[in-house]
């Protein structure tokens, strides 16, 4: 099952986010769930991080929540708000997730 993890940063945590980014990235690469898509949410300037969006494959909500709430951004206080919601992609979506999505946590080019 797919789960969307939507996170918003606490005010004034840009430096903490930068400090925790290597640990956050390492967790994505060694995730106990399968990351499908992820990246920062950004301000209208197109580059200032204001949160994160992560789409994972996990058997249960509990697995997705454990992954989200134990991420270095969560534990350190970067993320002020974390929501986990089940996701069912539309068959009419212009971009489709298929069985070709790697099950190793790596992207199509082999990198996370």
TrEMBL record:
Gene3D superfamilies listed in its UniProt record: Dimeric alpha+beta barrel (3.30.70.1060)
Regions that span the bilayer: none
YCII-related domain sequence ranges: 1-87
InterPro entries linked: Dimeric_a/b-barrel (IPR011008), Sec-metab_biosynth-assoc (IPR051807), YCII (IPR005545)
Assigned protein family: Belongs to the YciI family.
The protein's name: YCII-related domain-containing protein
Organism: Streptomyces incarnatus
